[in-house]
């Protein structure tokens, strides 16, 4: 049934691209001989079958590049063979031409529905056959080139996925390390307490909050926002967490050891200047950060604060009055000779102070506007009526998530420090 395709009397090598092996299916031996003569002359490896059943059996083990099949055959006709051929599990696409005496549009439509790519009307002419095969070869060349590129893309995507999974794993671990910089989200100091909120917009963020107390009635707390996002900002927060350590006072630049007995809190403006000098001295670092750092004497509520480009803290008095503190100031790490001014006030029992990042005030709302300071004030006053401590901050963040634009979502880290003063 399948003759030796290597014996060719007259052979003219033509370039038909992807088409090398051709299967001729026809119950007419004469018709097969006519086709084989031309196909072998053009340089194809030609195989033949006298029925659709024999052809499908062959194709199940060896897929040809091109199939030339008669439409009308006993048993499995050309349409049935074409459908069965297309259902075979094959990694490559083959071009299928139906040979027919039918030229009606409805018949052509049936052939296309069955999976045929082209038609040739009998009796066949060699030039037309060669032209149709050339057209099929161009299509197969493009299809196989596309398949090759798709395989390359799939391989690249798999490699990217592996790389992404590795990076994602590292970022998850980095987030754990960053979370370790804020081991406690709540601290109680006498009757007063400090609560912290840190919600990065990605795995890791550039915000940092913290608190420390070197002794009874002495308390410091801060809110920091490093420029940019991602790994670089997170590395900077890790460094700043060491500068303002709540456990290793000997490394905390906001403290000074006195008489080899105890640690004292340095004035906030001096702490800002020290941080600015260290950041400016580090060559190659382009990041800067904003900060509010405050210390408070819990015996009398005396609050001293430095604001370095950070949003204004909100002071909520026990009588319902509110005010934003600070004069703005320069971010830390921008100017070598930057001067930082201290703000002072006295807090009364029942007063509350909210330090926050611009993730609150610059949050885009559903109508396109920003929450801004007035929106923050209203939100904080409402939350303070029902909650205190960490619950207050979680309520603030929940309300923020409800009003932010669903299109933009959370685009910046959100952090806050909430200090509740309840007297000595």
List the helices and strands and how they pair.
Layout: E1 21-25, H1 29-41, E2 45-49, H2 52-59, E3 66-70, H3 78-86, E4 95-100, H4 105-114, E5 118-121, H5 126-180, E6 186-189, E7 192-199, E8 207-215, E9 218-226, H6 231-243, E10 255-258, E11 262-265, H7 268-281, E12 289-297, E13 302-308, E14 314-316, E15 322-324, E16 342-346, E17 352-356, H8 358-361, H9 372-386, H10 389-403, E18 414-420
Q: How would you describe this structure to a colleague?
A:
The structure is a single chain. The chain has 424 residues and is α+β, with helices and mostly antiparallel strands. A hairpin with a 2-residue loop joins strand 6 (186-189) and strand 7. The strands form 4 sheets. Strands 6-7-18-17-14-15 form a 6-stranded antiparallel beta sheet. A 5-stranded parallel beta sheet has the order 2-1-3-4-5, with helices on both faces. A 5-stranded antiparallel beta sheet has the order 8-9-12-13-16. The chain folds into 2 domains: 21-149, Response regulator (Rossmann fold), CATH 3.40.50; 183-420, 4-Layer Sandwich (Phosphatase 2c, domain 1). It is built from 10 helices and 18 strands. Helix 2 (52-59) runs parallel beside helix 3 (78-86). Helix content is 37%, strand content 24%. It comes from Ruegeria conchae. GO terms for molecular function: phosphatase activity. It holds the Pfam family Response_reg.
- Main sheet? 6 strands, antiparallel
Strand proportion, as a percent range, falls in 15-25%
CATH topology of the largest domain: Phosphatase 2c, domain 1
What CATH architecture of the largest domain would you give?
4-Layer Sandwich
């Amino acid at each position: 049934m399948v003759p030796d395709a290597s014996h060719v009397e007259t052979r003219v090598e033509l370039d038909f691209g992807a088409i090398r092996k051709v299967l001729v299916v026809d119950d007419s031996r004469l018709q097969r001989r006519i086709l084989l003569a031309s196909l072998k002359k053009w340089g194809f490896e030609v195989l033949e079958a006298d029925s659709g059943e024999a052809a499908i059996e062959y194709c199940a083990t060896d897929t040809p590049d091109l199939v030339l099949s008669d439409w009308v055959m006993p048993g499995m006709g050309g349409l049935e063979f074409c459908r069965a051929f297309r259902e075979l599990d094959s990694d490559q696409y083959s071009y299928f031409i139906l040979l027919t005496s039918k030229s009606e549009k409805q018949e052509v439509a049936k052939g296309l529905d069955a999976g045929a790519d082209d038609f040739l009307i009998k009796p066949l002419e060699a030039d037309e056959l060669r032209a149709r095969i050339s057209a099929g070869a161009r299509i197969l060349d493009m299809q196989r080139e596309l398949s090759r590129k798709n395989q390359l893309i799939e391989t690249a995507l798999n490699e990217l996925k592996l790389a992404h999974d590795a990076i994602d794993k590292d970022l998850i671990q980095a987030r754990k390390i960053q979370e370790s910089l804020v081991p406690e989200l709540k601290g109680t100091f006498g009757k007063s307490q400090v609560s912290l909120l840190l919600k990065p917009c990605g795995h890791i963020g550039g915000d940092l909050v913290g608190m420390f107390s070197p002794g009874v009635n002495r308390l410091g707390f801060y809110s920091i926002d490093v420029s940019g996002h991602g790994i670089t900002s997170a590395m900077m927060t890790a460094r700043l967490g060491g500068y303002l350590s709540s456990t290793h006072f000997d490394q905390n630049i906001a403290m000074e050891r006195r008489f080899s007995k105890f640690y004292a809190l340095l004035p906030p403006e001096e702490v800002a200047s020290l941080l600015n000098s260290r950041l400016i001295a580090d060559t190659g670092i382009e990041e800067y950060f904003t900060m509010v750092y405050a210390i408070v004497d819990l015996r009398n509520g005396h609050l001293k604060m430095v604001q370095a480009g950070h949003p204004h803290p909100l002071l909520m008095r026990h009588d319902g009055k509110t005010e934003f503190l600070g004069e703005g100031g320069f971010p830390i790490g921008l100017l070598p000779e930057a001067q930082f001014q201290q703000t002072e006030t006295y807090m009364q029992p029942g007063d509350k102070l909210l330090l926050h990042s611009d993730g609150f005030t610059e949050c885009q709302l559903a109508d396109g506007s920003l929450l801004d300071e007035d929106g923050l004030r209203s939100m904080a006053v409402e939350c303070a009526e029902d909650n205190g401590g960490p619950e207050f901050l979680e309520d603030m963040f929940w309300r923020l998530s409800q009003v932010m634009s669903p299109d933009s979502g959370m685009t910046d880290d959100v952090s806050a420090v909430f200090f509740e003063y309840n007297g000595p």
